[in-house]
Specification:
218 residues; alpha/beta; TIM Barrel; 8-stranded parallel beta barrel; 55% helix; 17% strand; globular; binds erythose-4-phosphate; pentose shunt; transferase; aldehyde-lyase activity; schiff base
Length: 218
């Protein structure tokens, strides 16, 4: 499973990259705003800075909601760096834009997906990635992981190449469960990735090894 980090924070991105397990980055307008990145030029420069930090795919989201606007914005974003994946909302205009980008060889991430039907449409439009938001479904007492399982079934039935990018991952167990049910990618905050490291038996075992070494070696 690929690991993406879901942030526009350069320090967090660098820390995940330095760990050696990062395959890419996803951002959205809220995450950019959280880092205080505003204005077209600053936003484009920030995407360039992210691309310089990581080796993998960097999802950059369009703001336009009409087809022409999405195409114009998406083409400008894709021209920034070959790592850029154009992130498009799951709307009628978004599906049209996704199809357009797919015929032009521009990679896409269809975002704000909350149903199997939406994921099916994204695959048919040639999306590179589809982003079901599992955390936001959990927030409204709906099983987000179940959606991933259902999309996996449908995509496998027809051998769709669109990759399932489990998004809105909030914690470490989300990552583990996404891996169990065959999500192609997960995107979550740095804390969810670092949480995978933790086990008390690792900590106590290491402490014992070091203590025993110290006894014998002074
Ligand atoms: C997806 O790409 C979004 O950026 C993100 O995963 C949303 O997560 P949230 O529901 O925690 O805001």
């Amino acid at each position: 499973m690929k690991f993406f980090i879901d942030t526009a924070n350069l320090a967090d991105i660098k820390e995940a990259q330095d760990l050696g397990v990062l395959d890419g980055v996803t951002t959205n307008p809220s995450l950019m705003a959280k880092e205080g990145i505003t204005g077209e030029e600053n936003i484009l420069n920030h995407y360039k800075a992210i691309c310089e930090l990581v080796d993998g795919d960097v999802s950059a989201e369009v703001i336009s909601t009409d087809f022409e606007g999405m195409v114009k914005e998406g083409e400008a974003l894709a021209a920034l760096n070959p790592q850029i994946v154009v992130k498009i909302p799951m709307t009628k205009e978004g599906v049209k834009a996704c199809k357009y980008f797919s015929t032009k060889g521009i990679r896409t991430n269809v975002t704000l997906v909350f149903s199997v039907g939406q994921a099916l449409l994204a695959a048919k439009a040639g999306a590179t990635y589809v982003s079901p938001f599992i955390g936001r479904l959990d927030d409204i007492s709906t099983d987000g992981l179940n959606l991933i399982e259902e999309i996996r079934l449908v995509y496998d039935n027809y051998l769709y190449e669109t990759q399932i990018l489990a998004a809105s991952v909030r914690n470490t167990m989300h990552i583990v469960n996404c891996a169990k049910i065959g999500a192609d990618v997960m995107t979550g905050p740095l804390s969810s990735i670092l949480g995978l490291l933790k086990h008390p038996l690792t900590d106590s075992g290491l402490a014992q090894f070091l203590a025993d070494y110290a006894k014998g070696n002074g």
